[in-house]
Model the fold of this input.
Amino acid sequence: MSWILLIAVVLIVFWAVGLYNTLVRLRKRCDNGWAQIDVQLKRRYDLIPNLVETAKGYLKHEREVLENVTKARQQAIDASGVADQAQAENFLSQTLKSLFAVVEAYPDLKANQNMLAVQEELVSTENKISYARQHYNDTVMRFNTRTEVFPSSIVANMFGFVEREFFELEEEAEREAPKVDFS
Done:
């Protein structure tokens, strides 16, 4: 009888270790997903000064728009945590939309080769950010589900695995990449 009990205890320990390792892998995937978003956001932040400099000469009367874009970029760079980052990104997207709306009124700027190149890079980056957000949120969903379902929730609670935040946009209009069209 003691052998059966010993085997049962060993099986339970192996099962718990397996669940723990699964949770660790999922947590690491969440961290990696966030790092991928961070890489794409950095790329976006690096493009914004080029966009502002290119537009500056043409938009002398639109100084406030350029200042808002620069301010929003800095807030996004300084953001920490998923919710703070999402809020900063929402503000940055809004200011970029207003910049592109102003640029529409300047045909010479719309045709500028530097502006076209930066615009193309920005559109590409926005698509990569969107993909990275989707990947991150999918990974967070798998992790959160695993930490909440029984019996893995027991192991998750024992070892302090906590639910992760999704990277969500606040407004429906912000769920789309900024419309950039200089044609």
Summary: The two ends are 81 Å apart (CA to CA). The domain at 2-175 is CATH 1.20.1440.20 (de novo design (two linked rop proteins)).
